[in-house]
Amino acid sequence: MRVSRRALILSAGAAALGPLVRVRQAIADDGTKELPLAAQQAVANVTGDGHPATAVWSYDGIVPGPELRVRQGDRVRVVVSNKLGEETTVHWHGIRVPNAMDGVPGLTQTPIRPGGSFAYEFTPPVAGTFWYHPHADTLQQLGRGLAGAFIVEEREPVAVDRDLLWFIEDWRLDEGAQIAPGFGNRMEAAMSGRVGNTITINGRIPDRISVRAGERVRLRVVNATLARIVSLRFEGHRPVVVAHDGQPCEPYMAEGGRLVLGPAMRADLIIDMDGKPDQSYRVIDDFYQDLAYKLVDLAYGPAKPTRERPQDLPLRLPRNPLPEPDLRSVERHEIALRGGMMGGMGMMGGMGDAAWTINGTSMTGDGQPNMPPLFTLRRGQSCMLVLRNETAWWHPMHLHGHSFQVISRNGRSNPRREWRDTVLVPPRETVQVAFVADNPGNWMFHCHVTDHQMAGMMAVLRVA
Ligand code: C2O
Ligand code: CU
């Protein structure tokens, strides 16, 4: 796949990854975790020392926003105050919240006015790696830096030496390291979306991450980009995938050593650092074949291995309580994704501002009042979505309020049956996912390439 864009400016001012992520928590009298969060403008040094700082939109003045960390079953109250010059909302991506806390403007709440605030209250029922981002003017707000990780810790965490987060963002910067304008370019919206030219981990262009020989690391990887799919290859290492989108899976070695994450997707990896002291090992992103680049080095210190042999301890995370769909009584819904640019042949059909459709209909924007549902599901009903991608582009399709099991790809059953909240559907392929519609409300279902969502690849599923 080819994407034309300027060369990556990755080598500029690379920095070693330090403790750049701030963790936030406070406990109120009634045991609720109180987490104030302010959406505001800020300046951040994303390109490294000696390079100009970048004007960003941020949570609490930092990019990414603070890592919000709670324990499974904790009651959480996040009071979001809006210090931006425009309306905003926050969506808790992948967390099962009550519909009124889902952050979709018009559909589930009135957007937060400039100067206003809104208290999001929920109790995450499952543990895992989630994230939060705006659902208003999403292309610009997410593209200017509003996003952060939301970690729900297991009641009994797995034994690892370190628990690390890689929050991956993709910026389109100009020569002065400022965010390039031009959000919502119609040509891009009909193609790959706004792919940037500068990739950061935890808010900085990374150079190396220090590791110790023999340690076992849990690495939580979040793809928080607008449009960039990444395929990470850890040279000299054998990462074990233990969770997708926060949901534990049967641990397995990533196929061909590659971890593919579309926008909004996450994975938890367990990596035994069995490289040699004083050596460096590259982590390569080679999703766009002719544009492979080194994301970061795993840099070993001089210390001898902390243990002689890799640990035998189990890698399996405790299961999350998710209801299994009953495939015999499942209600099937066919979902056809169409539109976009076809290898230079122009758009399919004349659709005005919209470039994409779901079953022939384009819902554009971030969410609106009175969006008619694509279909309505009875509460408790098992549902199968047959996602048919009839376009020439990749689409990471996300359902709010639920996680689903990936049942099959192109008619071949998927033995892994992993749970996800966002599934990457390659061009011309069909993916079947199933879930129990047990969370009542109006739920967004959309492509997480933000340009695609804005340009029509969005729908609402109602659970009555
Ligand atoms: Cu991260 Cu509507 O989603
Ligand atoms: Cu898409």
Word description of this protein:
A hairpin with a 2-residue loop joins strand 27 and strand 28 (412-413). Strands 22, 23, 25, 27, 28, 29 and 31 form a seven-stranded mixed β-sheet that branches. The protein contains three helices and 33 strands. The chain is 3% helix and 41% strand. It is mostly beta strands and 464 residues long. Mean pLDDT is 91; it is low at 1-20. CU-O-CU linkage (C2O) binds next to strand 7 and strand 32. CU-O-CU linkage is lined by residues 91, 93, 133, 135, 264, 398, 400, 444, 446, 448.
* Class derived from helix and strand content: mainly beta
Radius of gyration: 21 Å
How many E strands? 33
The whole-number mean of residue pLDDT values reads: 91
How many helices? The count is: 3
Bound molecules: CU-O-CU linkage, copper (II) ion
What percentage of the residues does DSSP assign to strands (E)? 35-45%
Q: Which ranges are low-confidence, i.e. pLDDT below 50, for 5 or more consecutive residues?
A: 1-20
Helix content: under 10%
**Ends: how far apart?**
41 Å
Largest sheet: 7 strands, mixed
Q: What is the molecular shape?
A: globular
